[in-house]
Amino acid sequence: MEAAGICHSDLNALAGRSQPPGWPLIPGHEGLARVEKVGSDVSSVAPGDRVLFSFVASCRRCFWCIRGQDSLCICFRAQAVPKGTLAGGEPVFGHAGLGAFAEQALVDERALVPVSSQLDAAQLCLVSCAVTTGMSGVFNASGLQAGDTVAVIGLGGVGQAATRAAHLAGAGGIVVVDPVEARRNAALRLGATSAAASKDDAAECLRVMTGGRGADIALEAAGSKAAAADAYELTRRGGTIVILGAPPRTETPPWSLYSQMTDSKTVRGALYGGAVPRRDFARLVAFAESGRLDLDGMVGQRISLEEVSQGIAAMSHGAGRAVITF
Ligand SMILES: [Zn+2]
Ligand SMILES: [Zn+2]
């Protein structure tokens, strides 16, 4: 491993809000590594390659992969395959079949994407999850057209990336919502035009900007029912809500079907932002290399593997994304 970011999906797994493949578990799915050795049947990566982890191991052949919906591929359940065993023979699992919070990882080649970039490891590693989810969510899933007014709810790594993508895609106005001031300030540096601490403040901003209509597009990037409800309310009639965050497994939609029909709002989920990792990682890295995406500003703190528990605790209390470097 070169670097591994701590993602809110890791926090969900550790807190029992999602269902990891089994315990004991090596958390971590946002990763950058250097290939050390490959098995005899491996053809898509070679020793020495720098690779980003993909938390979906796309087969590249099934119904979904052929249609460019690689993030929906379920042909290979990498997470069901143990990473190894403890001394007593008990199997150990990796989050999403990866297990990035470790000095070394045994990963299926379908979950690895080679990158030629020489960017700093902590920055580049963010492309593996947060940057791709947020930016692809805008580029691939939202249908954003230049001039659209966009709301981003939740400013963790995914929300920050979505804000930047909306700016790059030519959004006319970008209203971001998050209770943490430092996150709002970071989003303003990434291209947000207004920042609000609450949904009500955001609604007032949008009312002024759009003549009372509301946002054309709202991006839910907090993974919570409350954020989804805010995204729905802030969107204009006929607008689009994209669910990017991972909510707890049992959560149900907070809006009424009647209003969804009469207001004709489109609500769509976008796992991994609808990304095709083998296509999209490279184009997102290119934004960073050309200076149009400041990945360094998205790294909250750099920590060692030994400090992972403190990093998780800090992020649970609203700190920016912590990245383990090796
Ligand atoms: Zn993640
Ligand atoms: Zn497939």
Query: What is the residue-mean pLDDT, rounded to a whole number?
Result: 95
| Main β-sheet, spatial strand arrangement | 7-4-3-1-15-14
Tell me the β content.
Answer: 15-25%
Largest beta sheet, briefly? 6 strands, mixed
How many DSSP E strands?
15
Estimate percent helicity.
Answer: 25-40%
Low-pLDDT regions: none
User: Structural class, please?
Assistant: alpha/beta
> What is the N-to-C order of secondary-structure elements (H for helix, E for strand)?
EHEEEHEEEHHEHEHEHEHEHEHEHE
Bound molecules: zinc ion
Distance between the termini: 7 Å
Shape: globular
How many individual helices? 11
Radius of gyration, rounded? 19 Å
Describe this entry's structure for a reader.
- With 326 residues, the chain is an alpha/beta fold.
- It has eleven helices and 15 strands.
- It has a six-stranded mixed beta sheet with strand order 7-4-3-1-15-14, with helices on both faces. It has a six-stranded parallel beta sheet with strand order 10-9-8-11-12-13, with helices on both faces. Strands 2-6-5 form a three-stranded mixed beta sheet, with no helix packed on it.
- The chain is globular.
- The relative contact order is 0.17.
- The protein binds zinc ion (2 copies).
